[in-house]
Amino acid sequence: MNLPYHFTPIPLKSKTFRSARTLACRVDARLGCGHAPRWRAGFSPRGLKPALLICICLLALTSCGYIGPVVPPSPLLPNAITDLKAVERGDQLSVSFSTPPRTTDGRAIKKFSKIELVVGPVVHPWNFAHWSQTAKHHELPSPPPNDPNAPLYHAMQAAEPISAWVGQTIAVAVRTAIKKKDHFSPWSNYVVLKVIPPLKPPVVTAEATAGGYRLTWHEEKSGMDFDIYRQGPSDKAPIQIGTTKKPEYLDTTSQWNTRYAYTVVALLDAAESLPSQPVRVMHADTFPGAVPTGLTALATPSSIELSWERVSSANLKGYYVYRSVNGAPFARVGGLLTLPAYADQAVEHGKTYRYEVSSVSQKGYESAKSQATPPVTFP
């Protein structure tokens, strides 16, 4: 098998050539030639002595040449896209994916010659080639050129009207090329979805309650889900805060005296509506805390231990505990509590105790008292 040798020409005035000349002179001396060759401008290689030719060849092979592997030409095929997503959003088919940074043989992709989005009805049995022939092809704009030394993924988005596909099950795929003449990458992952009539954005209303802002809207169809978004003063974009299957939502994490904008998106299968019109709110803290529930009292050798369920009000500041001794009127004991528990150590043996608890808002508004505990006798 012939190996590809690569040689670099040696200029006559180069360091390598001078080294070869010196070595040749030494060889001549050893061989008894008696004198060194004379060098002058315009000499011909035909006049070179055999020793000099041998030295030049040896230096060329050892310092300027190498045996290289046989490298086949790159097919220049981009890697397949693997993160394609498609969803029906309003009256548009919304598509997103990332372009690959390298080819199938690991070469960096500087720019794409073509990015092709293909949408069409599903064929049975499924066959990519048959489906591609009947589907609609769209050429998308290419992303900015890549740095060949540090190629990156580029996020891509596209939208296509769904009016032609309503009532049909469609498939969506994408492929790319960096050479002309249909030299495409493998197909991306494909997404299959059934196109339905566009969902309408919900019409949302907001009401301030003691538990937080309560959002309500009309449900267009049964079986829908809803994503809830909120944007506060420091948020650059709406942030999803919850999901519900009912046409209502209570935001217990909001704060009073703070501006918010709420939006709701309706979901059904692979379709979603556009966001609702923002509902903007800002309410002062004028609500008392919610009434605590689940109060229990248990006598121990040194105290009577109380616990109750935590109040989820957005404006909760703490709790007050009230006590009745041997049937006397209830009176507050201790100070403001931040946790839903209390140990009453100021108890006397043989006496009977009952307890109530209330919650307090950030502005000091107190709720009604909870249901009293049954009488507990401290032994």
Characterise this structure.
This protein has about 375 residues and is mainly beta. It contains three helices and 25 strands. The chain has helices at about 15-30, 50-65, 130-135; strands spanning about 5, 65, 85-90, 90-100, 115-120, 135-140, 155-160, 170-180, 185, 190-195, 205-210, 210-215, 225-230, 240-245, 250, 260-270, 270, 280, 295-300, 305, 315-325, 330-335, 340-345, 350-360, 375. The strands form six sheets. Strands 3, 4, 7, 13, 14, 16, 17 and 18 form an eight-stranded mixed β-sheet that branches. Strands 5, 6, 8, 9 and 10 form a five-stranded antiparallel β-sheet that branches. Strand 8 (about 170-180) and strand 9 (about 185) form a beta hairpin. Helix 1 (about 15-30) packs across helix 2 (about 50-65). The longest helix is centred in the N-terminal third of the chain and has 17 residues, at about 15-30. The radius of gyration is 41 Å and the shape is elongated. The model is unreliable at about 1-10 and about 30-45 (pLDDT under 50).
